[in-house]
Amino acid sequence: MRSTMPHKTKVIILVVLLVFACLFLILRSGRERSHYRPRVVPAVSSTEMVGTAIVPTLDTPLAKSGNAIWCATFQVAWNHACDDVIGGPLSIANAQPVANRLNGSTVSEKVLPPGNYFAAAGRLEDGIVDTIREQMAKEFPGVTPPNFEEAVGFVAYGYLDTKATFTKPFVDTEQPLRFLDGTGVEHSVSGFGLHEGTDWDLLAKQAAQVKVLFSQTDDEDDESDWANPIAFALDLTADQAEQQVIIAVLPRAEHLRAALDDLARRIEKYPPDEYSPKLLQKVDTLGIPNVVFHMNHEFSELQGVDKIIKNPGEFQGLHIQKAYQSIRFRLDKSGAVVISEADVSLAASPRHFIVDRPFLIVLKRRSTDEPYFVAWIDNAELLEVTQKVNTVTTTTDQNNIGIQGTPLTRRP
């Protein structure tokens, strides 16, 4: 039987169907891709951040509380000064303990991602300033290095511009995270995690890129308690061969080096087992605060008229005029920048990886032992606070914390 529908009407219907199909595909791909525009924050002096310290070395002793930020650029510039200019360790009057930590650091240029950094040091009379400007213009067009107008003797310079982008962007958490800082004060902060809708394909892709490095419960003998670890570490870029972004909830350490050592020890001692799969599962809960800052810092412990170079030679008697570092950092759903068939099917139980207390951030190359960025986030000064919430009441047991208010909704 021939259809009586006019040919023109058929064409219109076909066009409408094609338009709807295209819109569906565009919306679907748009949902899977991150259209998030990173929030830009103005540069501030570290002196304005009362709860944050930028440290020159990983083994710099930390205060009892507060954030601690370290980046390899200052160490690499220092190394160039020692190797290319002084010909050995720097000896600085009234700053030798700090100089000794810098001189003895195992961090070298190899920790930085190739093609994403520049570092050099040299004598002014040898044209090092022109060299820095020429190389920076070639490797990082648009970035203007310091002019070094008041410098004498030699200068050392380092620059890093790199990112670790998640293969499958995460999503903003539907409800704010409740972050309990190191002093026991609770803050409502924005964060990111797994997709919480019904797009199971997107959820599986997000979860598959996260590896559980270790998960530790309060009672190691209580197998029913494994779903809510008191300490854990996640590799958020487990599907990538080079860049590694690690988030770890740990007790506060005396310095960042000790925190890294503690992380390595726990990864070895508490590896995933049959109760705690290595990769994140679709039923697991993930909540990580957004971290964003842009700080300029001067290492006052190294600079000033009394910080005199004691190394014999042409620079003896000169003092360090400026020991400066600028760090801009962002961690959000876009980065720091399973089909399975079996004879027996089991229902997975959810684990809850909510970064709601002080945590460690580590960025490193997988091919190196040392990182190029480390941060201990102890308070909400660098987090995106959404609103103030009630202060918590803590018990004498540090692992049991009473919280007033509505907790983050967990996946059923």
Describe the structure in your own words.
With 412 residues, the protein is of the alpha+beta class. It has two domains: 72-163 and 297-330, no CATH class; 171-292 and 347-402, Alpha-1-antitrypsin, domain 1, CATH 2.30.39. The protein has six helices and 21 strands. It has helices at residues 7-32, 72-86, 96-103, 128-139, 200-208, 256-269, and strands at 44-45, 52-54, 67-71, 117-123, 154-160, 171-172, 177-180, 186-189, 191-193, 211-216, 231-235, 243-249, 285-289, 291-298, 324-331, 352-354, 359-365, 371-377, 385-388, 393-394, 401-402. The chain has a seven-stranded mixed sheet. A hairpin with a 6-residue loop joins strand 20 (393-394) and strand 21. The N and C termini lie far apart (53 Å). The relative contact order is 0.19. The model is unreliable at 23-34, 337-349 and 391-412 (pLDDT under 50).
Q: How much helix, percentage-wise, in residues? A: 10-25%
Give the second-level CATH assignment, the architecture of the largest domain. Roll
Specify the biggest β-sheet: 7 strands, mixed
Averaged pLDDT, please?
81
Following the backbone from N to C, one meets helices and strands in this order, namely HEEEHHEHEEEEEHEEEHEEEEEEEEE
Give me the CATH superfamily of the largest domain: Alpha-1-antitrypsin, domain 1
Broad CATH class of the largest domain: Mainly Beta
Question: What distance separates the N and C termini?
Answer: 53 Å
**Which structural category do the helix and sheet elements fall into?**
alpha+beta
**Proportion of β residues?**
15-25%
Using the CA coordinates, give the radius of gyration: 26 Å
DSSP, total strands:
21
